[in-house]
Amino acid sequence: MTGFFDLLKKRRSIRDYEEKDVPLDLVKEIIRESCLAPSSGNGQPWRFIIINNRDWIEKLSDESKKNILSFIEQNPDAPLKQYETVLRDKHFNVFYNAPCLVFIGGSKKTGSIQVDCTLAACYFMFSAQARGLGTCWIGLGTNIQNPEIRKQIGMPEDYRIVAPIIIGYPRTIPDTPERMDPHILKTVR
């Protein structure tokens, strides 16, 4: 397995995948490891939904696109407007045709759900990277609103999607972008 500091340096957001399925047992193993993440009061409120079916992933992409475009029409000055052209492209899949999608989220009633699930998502992405898999957090994939679709994929009514993460075997890996030095506002001694 890759060393920890190599993981930090080499993890990339992957948007181009081989036509190869990710074994479900491997996805579940990565999820188990993501549950080692810290959480507020050790509440471990995260829940996972695995979509290991390309037709369903495409259906979820279409659902997200439809809902985002509706939002843009109602809010033409919203920052999401920058995505309008690509979202109107019927061939664009917000999940980049990945072989597997994992929704990390939990109850909207949990005050720390955003932070707790974000930590689990980070562990998920590093665990996948250590196994030679690629991931990408897809912010545009949080817009699953249709009650019937939510029910069919096992998403509870009060479930909030925090991190839709695609996973698969990378076809290409982008170069590491240049990083800025940390911006430390002040050191108090």
Overview of the structural elements:
There is one protein chain. The protein has one domain: NADH Oxidase, CATH 3.40.109. It contains 6 helices and 4 strands, in the order H-H-E-H-H-E-H-E-H-E. The protein has helices at 4-10, 24-34, 54-74, 84-88, 113-130, 147-152; strands at residues 47-51, 100-107, 134-137, 159-168. It has a 4-stranded antiparallel beta sheet with strand order 1-2-4-3. Helix 2 packs across helix 5 (113-130). The longest helix is centred in the middle third of the chain and has 21 residues, at 54-74. It is globular. The termini are far apart. The model has no long low-confidence stretch (mean pLDDT 94).
Secondary-structure element order, N to C: HHEHHEHEHE
Strands, total number: 4
Number of helices: 6
Share of residues in helices: 25-40%
Main attributes?
4 strands; 14% strand; NADH Oxidase; 36% helix; 6 helices; 189 residues; 4-stranded antiparallel beta sheet; alpha+beta
SSE topology:
Elements lengths: L3 H7 L13 H11 L12 E5 L2 H21 L9 H5 L11 E8 L5 H18 L3 E4 L9 H6 L6 E10 L21
In short:
By secondary structure, this protein is of the alpha+beta class. It has helices at 4-10, 24-34, 54-74, 84-88, 113-130, 147-152; strands at residues 47-51, 100-107, 134-137, 159-168.
